[in-house]
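== Folding task for one protein ==

=== Format: two labelled lines per protein ===

==== Paired sequence and structure tokens ====
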Amino acid sequence: METDAVEVYGDVTGLAPFTILLILATLAATGLVLLFGVNRVIKPLRTLSEITQGFAEGDWDRRAEVLSNDEVGLLASSFNHMADELGGVYRSLEQKVDERTRQVHTAAEVAQSVTTLSNLDEMFNKTVALLVEQFGFYQASIFMLDRNGKYLEFKNRVRGSIKGIG
């Protein structure tokens, strides 16, 4: 029993265009899946990376857009929370620096008044007035130990005004 080669390979040759078409369709589908994957995962991660880089360079107002509830969305949400917390800490530190600067300025004024005034009572008056004015105290007083170091002596008191009453 002999069979003709054309008969045997004829069916296989007829499948070649179908096989090539199947391979091209598979490649196209793979490309679409990769394109979708890049847009869905890689692109948001790149955007988040750019935002965090800007934040690290001092743009403290940058926030990530939370577009989904998946891992990338959770990461963006966590970044936003961290950025808010850091912003609060930074503002708090700025306030403390401003307060300390004002305190140093007041201490310098008090020190200057001590060195320029020869009258002790006048120096106490100016010192207490500066403390009330610069620190916003309602009242400030000066007490001194007597020469024996046993009793406190009242020297001076200044009262400021209370804002918002009336």
